[in-house]
Amino acid sequence: MTEQITTVSAYAAPAPDAPLERTTIPRRAVGEFDVLIDIKYAGICHSDIHQARDGWGEGIFPMVPGHEIAGIVAEVGPGVTKFSVGDHVGVGCMVDSCRRCENCAAGLEQYCTGGNVGTYNALDKNGEPTYGGYSTHIVVDEAFTLRIPDGIALDVAAPLLCAGITTYSPLAHWKAGPGTKVAVVGLGGLGHMAVKIAHAMGAEVTVLSQSLRKKDDGLRLGAEHYYATSDDATFEALAGRFDLILSTVSAPLPLDKYLGLLRTDGAFVNVGAPEEPVSLSLFSVIAGRKTLAGSGIGGIRETQEMLDFCAEHGLGSEIELIRADQINEAYERVLASDVRYRFVIDAATI
Ligand SMILES: [Zn+2]
Ligand SMILES: [Zn+2]
């Protein structure tokens, strides 16, 4: 083992609601099955902002957000078999799980009943806080490290580690493909990846957005149709149309209206979650044997499958590359939906 990096540069929120600022954080020494990653890019996910501002409560501060990480392997532990120095790799929302429960055994670590370990704002198995991707280096067990294929540049690959897998997993589970009609609600960080991936899977894609403001983008990214949900005529025109509706928005939706857009046996799947409970008439799912479901990120095996799929189809995220000192400004722009479609931090500026 060569030099052990224990202190690295990072951008952290020192306290809830405090702006992020440059600091240093500890990284553990490279263990037997660990990979040391020289981070090149980190995406900014909406949930980074929620957590840095303690929207979900009980956050661990100082907090270094970032779970859309792309970089290059700088060192490997003696037991590592999957990776070598120089490999392009990524890290998503988890860095560990119990590895024993039914879900872990099935490759569904995101639903680990023993509690998986978040990439940041969590405690690892030794009780140490985890720090995310807004930093220059990270040490991760190879079992939670993904290979980024050569076909995808690292900057546009970073957002795939959360936005990509969060949309790929339900599209794959509910079998989006040739002959299926998929609607994507919301064209933001998640929605734009859903459109690209569903289109690449062969589905006929429709975007349902509040307005037609981003219509040109939606069609360019792979949608065949684009409708404004602010127009009631949309819900009449599209009644009974879709096999799958993927909602990427966190605003509460009138679910009965949206369920009316499904065909018999269709599914409405939430990957964005409003903070408040929602209500609906159960007749909306009884008529037509419909499914109302949710889905969270994806397992490690499926995340690799997603990366390989994206490389095969030439898919990456649409990004705005920023310097680390622009993170706070970027947060405000994300909250104002003013980004097309993902901010990515150039880690060389951290
Ligand atoms: Zn995320
Ligand atoms: Zn588990």
Q: N-to-C SSE series?
A: EEEHEEEHEEEHHEHEHEHEHEHEHEHE
Under the CATH scheme, which class of the largest domain? Answer: Alpha Beta
Please tell me what the overall shape is.
Answer: globular
Number of DSSP E strands = 17
Radius of gyration: 20 Å
Counting H and I runs of at least 4 residues, what is the number of helices?
11
Catalytic activity: a primary alcohol + NADP(+) = an aldehyde + NADPH + H(+)
Protein name: alcohol dehydrogenase (NADP(+))
InterPro entries: ADH-like_C, ADH-like_N, ADH_Zn_CS, CAD-like, ER, GroES-like_sf, NAD(P)-bd_dom_sf
GO molecular function: alcohol dehydrogenase (NADP+) activity; zinc ion binding
Characterize the structure shown.
There is one protein chain. The protein has 350 residues and is an alpha/beta fold. The chain has two domains: 188 residues, Medium-chain alcohol dehydrogenases, catalytic domain (Quinone Oxidoreductase, Chain A, domain 1, Alpha-Beta Complex), CATH 3.90.180.10; 131 residues, NAD(P)-binding Rossmann-like Domain (Rossmann fold, 3-Layer(aba) Sandwich). Helices cover 24% and strands 25% of the residues. Strands 3, 4, 5, 8, 9, 16 and 17 form a seven-stranded mixed sheet that branches. The chain has a six-stranded parallel sheet with strand order 12-11-10-13-14-15, with helices on one face. Helix 4 packs across helix 5. The radius of gyration is 20 Å and the shape is globular. The model has no long low-confidence stretch (mean pLDDT 96). One zinc ion binds next to helix 2. The site of one zinc ion has 9 residues, from helix 2. It is an enzyme of class 1 (oxidoreductase). It catalyses: a primary alcohol + NADP(+) = an aldehyde + NADPH + H(+). Belongs to the zinc-containing alcohol dehydrogenase family.
